[in-house]
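We emphasize that the prediction below concerns an isolated chain of 358 residues; any contacts that depend on oligomerization or on bound cofactors are therefore not represented. The input was used exactly as deposited, without trimming of termini.
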Amino acid sequence: MKRFTHYILTLLLLMVMVPAGAQVVVEQRVDSVGILIGEQAHMSLGVTMPKGSKLQWPDLKAKQYVVPGVEVLGFEDADTVETDGKVKLERVYTITSFDEKLYAIPALPVKVDGKSYKGGTAALKVITVDVDTLHPNQFFPPKDVQTNPFMWSEWSPYFWLAVLVLLLFGFGFYLFVRLRENKPIITRIRIIRHVPAHQRALSAIEEIKAERMQTSEDQKTYYTRLTDTLRKYIQERFGFNAMEMTSSQIIDNLQQTGDRKMLDELTELFSTADLVKFAKYSTLINENDLNLVNAVNFIDSTKIEGQATEEKIVPQLNESDKRTRQNRITIKALLWAIGIIVVGLLGYIVYNVYLLMV
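Result of the prediction step, given as a token string:
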């Protein structure tokens, strides 16, 4: 009866104590259940406590024993984890043993805010290495490093890939030579600048005025240049060969323009020019000026505005040139593809051969 009462009191005492220390949890474990003699294991001791609490770890240092036969080689602190107002700290001890035995590692005490807590006990089994006790005098030196045996089945894929790389390289060199021998087809677009006919004619008349030919005594040269300027303008503007026509033929071809006054002025100009050039007729200065003005008025009234001043001339390739250009494009594309494949295969072969050799 006394024993039963003792159990009841102990249980009640634990129920009272658990809430007070429920905020502190101590975990102790060993990562290996069994090790060989001289091997190492890791014993971790983790403490979860309220944030801001003061922790005091067990006083265990290197070369000390957790229990007789289990030695501490060193320790290191793991990362701190904070969750929900609590903080978890962990310390990992490296332990070893040189005696064959099953060790019971007791719970290590820690102090949180001066109060002592413990985790659970852990077990560590140390196993000895088998020794040939029947032939203690037979000692064998350590074996040398042995080279891997050559196996053709391992090397053959990379050998044939290397042959393929050589073939591709040879084919690429052949294509490169073909590309060098086959000169490229270069088409250049020419841009021709066009000066409108009326601008050229007016520029020529401005040169005549700048040289003051209308006031010079050489009237034949003046009217020759003036009528030649008009003939070139009429030929370019109206599309008939005015340079090879007589004055009357030019007027007849211009009848369809419909401006009678302009044609009368132009007829008078050409008639005066013919008289000066062929009949040695002498004109007055004001008459020369009037003919010059009439020439300018005729050009201004018949000019075409908005003409293009530039023309792009794109050369047309024949069928042979087109085939040559297409062949060059195909060869270049093949060379790029072969280059990429060869580089990729070489990298793959070198990497795998390296793995076979190390």
